[in-house]
Amino acid sequence: MGRMEAVLGQYGGQASSFEAVFSPRGDNGLPMPLYDRRTGEIDPVVARHWRNEWDVSRIVRNRWPAQRTDLDGKLHVWVGAADEFGLDRSVRNLEAAVTAVNGKADFTYAPGKGHFDLYAEGQERQALRRVMAWQMWRRARPDSTLADPGPLG
Fold first, then answer.
1. Which of 3, 95, 111, 143 is the most buried (most CB within 10 A)?
2. What φ, ψ does residue 72 adopt, rounded to 5°?
3. Looking at per-residue confidence, does 150 or 16 come out higher?
4. pLDDT digit string (tens) for 83-108?
5. Angle at Cα 91 formed by Cα 88 and Cα 94, nearest 5°?
6. pTM
7. Residue pair 72/103 in contact by the 8 Å Cβ criterion
């Protein structure tokens, strides 16, 4: 993936988009790269900035107690238990942070699901999106008479 990013150039792929959001700016005003696309070597200054400013688990540990009434019961995270990018490990870290501050949140680890098939169920490629949408609807509109029509036929 790093080599592909190098070929795509400065405004190329996903890593570049993450750097545009999360990285500090270099002397040239551009986002500093997290890692060297050729060697894979991580820039410790950039990595430290990402961790200090954007690590969600760290933010939860530091801010949840003061924002408990705004956050408790409102975080619902789904991840494939076999995520190809290891995001399931990141979600477990987030869950540990929420637990450490006695927060209330829901974490769902979809067995056997990865990064690219998390939403699929049978022939319905976006089944989980439908499930999530109906869960949000029920929470936002508890008195509604609308009901989930069930899986697509």
1. 95
2. -55, 130
3. 16
4. 999 999 999 999 999 999 999 999 99
5. 160
6. 0.79
7. yes
